[in-house]
Design a protein that fits this description.
This protein is α/β, with parallel strands linked by helices. Among the domains are: 3-122, 3-Layer(aba) Sandwich (Rossmann fold), CATH 3.40.50; 256-289, no CATH class; 366-395, no CATH class. The protein contains 11 helices and 18 strands. A 7-stranded mixed β-sheet has the order 12-11-7-10-9-8-15. Strands 3-2-1-4-5-6 form a 6-stranded parallel β-sheet, sandwiched between helices. β17 (379-385) and β18 form a beta hairpin. α5 packs antiparallel against α11 (317-336) and α8 crosses α11. The model has no long low-confidence stretch (mean pLDDT 95). The chain binds nicotinamide-adenine-dinucleotide. Nicotinamide-adenine-dinucleotide binds next to α1. Nicotinamide-adenine-dinucleotide binds at residues 8-13, 33-36, 39, 56, 71-74, 76, 94-95, 121, 123, 159.
Length: 396
């Protein structure tokens, strides 16, 4: 059994606790910490948590606790992680790891210097569909990955602090771009260095200082592109979709709206439908098991198994720091309107390499650019001469 202290009793704290307690699970949140005593006590009563406190320091110092989960607003991640590391506790931190790469780097150093287990709680690389897709990509079924498009859009977050640029560290990019960036990075290959970013971001609707809409492209060293699309101005619920394009195949995944359960109610419902659902009447898109669909169940299985097996989990603070560095470059690009380099003072992946030659040879003189069955039934081949570059076609 893993004995857990949960820091933060908000939306994500509830999802995490549901996933951890699961059906007859052996892991328990034993201590919950929230700023307000009323909320902490209410959370503890609702989820069967033994103890509660309003002090982060008291929670991380508790000797009966093995693992600290940081589920606090973004401006408190660094302080909580450093306190947990200094107390010698395994520490799992929600996304984004830091508000900047500098903050994330300080957290990475703190856990590595303390020698404690660290996991970055990026749930959206763990949904069942994504895990299956990743297995196919890693087995080479889609060939080399060229382009990953990841979208998270909804009508805006549920707590005041998200809308405060200083406390959150940014807007839709820091809130949701972190998910999309890590999804793309996971499909492209976490050893492939992200090189530069071009990004548009604007405040289209809300009277706030941060961006409520952004689209960016991350170029990786092997030529792959990770495209992220995030918005707090999207209407109609929460749109979570990923697309992966490789030299040999394509993958499309829809995680939330229209996942296979569609319900019509003429009289409407007063019940919760799904996270960020905007309507409660007419056609609705409920989600059968949100905790599983968003990857929380698989994520905590990986994290807690990794602790038991003394191995690294799929997502560590190092991954969180890389994501923060990509977001820093995205914010710079919004200002300069140019491609901005991704600054990585620590890089532990592949060194520069040459990945050309993905188009197969046809014969000694030609490569095969394209093969297609035409309406008359014949198969047409488009060839390029390897020396002269001349383009020709012939029929098989
Ligand atoms: N899919 C995901 O991975 C996901 C989804 C939502 C939120 N998050 C992340 O989780 C974190 C929390 O978000 P949320 O949606 O749960 O926010 P929330 O506003 O719903 O809850 C925040 C909680 O932190 C507590 N808190 C605030 N200041 C505190 C303090 N000084 N000491 C103790 N407790 C304090 C509040 O009392 C509250 O219980 C954020 O970093 C957010 O980015 C992740």
């Amino acid at each position: 059994m893993t004995r857990i202290a949960l820091l933060g009793a908000g939306l994500i704290g509830s999802f995490y606790t549901q996933a951890l307690h699961g059906a007859r699970s052996r892991d328990r949140v034993e201590l919950v910490c929230s700023r307000s005593a009323t909320n902490a006590a209410a959370f503890a009563a609702k989820w069967g948590v033994e103890r509660w406190t309003t002090s982060i320091d008291e929670a991380v110092a508790d000797e009966r606790i093995d693992v600290v989960i940081v589920a606090l607003p973004n401006d408190l991640h660094k302080q909580a992680v450093i306190a947990a590391a200094q107390a010698g506790k395994a520490v799992l931190c929600t996304k984004p790891l830091g508000r900047t790469a500098e903050e994330a780097l300080q957290m990475l150093r703190a856990v590595e210097e303390a020698g404690v287990f660290h996991g970055y709680l990026e749930d959206l690389v763990y949904p069942p569909k994504t895990l299956k897709g990743l297995q196919s990509v890693q087995a080479g079924d889609l060939g080399r990955i060229l382009w990953v498009r990841s979208r998270e859009t909804h009508p805006g977050p549920h707590s005041d602090w998200f809308w405060d640029k200083e406390r959150a560290g940014g807007g839709a990019i820091i809130d949701m771009g972190c998910h999309c960036i890590e999804i793309a990075r996971s499909f492209i290959g976490k050893n492939v260095r992200p090189v530069e970013v071009v990004c548009w971001g604007d405040t289209q609707v809300h009277p706030i200082e941060s961006e409520d809409h952004a689209v960016g492209m991350v170029r990786y060293e092997d030529g792959a592109i990770g495209q992220f699309e995030v918005s707090w101005a999207f209407r109609g619920g929460m749109d979570l979709r990923d697309e992966v394009a490789g030299t040999e195949g394509t993958l499309w995944m829809n995680h939330w709206l229209r996942t296979g359960m569609e319900m019509y109610t003429a009289k409407g419902t007063s019940r919760y439908v799904a996270e960020k659902s905007e309507s409660n009447g007419g056609w609705l898109f409920p989600v059968g098991d949100e905790v599983a669909a968003l990857g929380y169940s698989n994520m905590f299985t990986d994290m807690l198994d990794a602790i038991d097996q003394a191995r690294e989990p799929t997502e560590t603070f190092y991954d969180g720091y890389i994501v923060n560095a990509i977001m820093d470059a995205s914010y710079r690009s919004i200002q300069t309107k140019r491609w901005e380099p991704i600054e990585l003072p620590i890089w532990r992946g592949k060194k520069p390499h040459d990945d050309v030659g993905i188009v197969p040879d046809f014969d000694r003189e030609h490569v095969l650019l394209k093969q297609e069955r035409m309406p008359d039934g014949r198969v047409k081949l488009i060839l390029r001469n390897k020396v002269t570059g001349e383009l020709t076609h012939r029929f098989k």
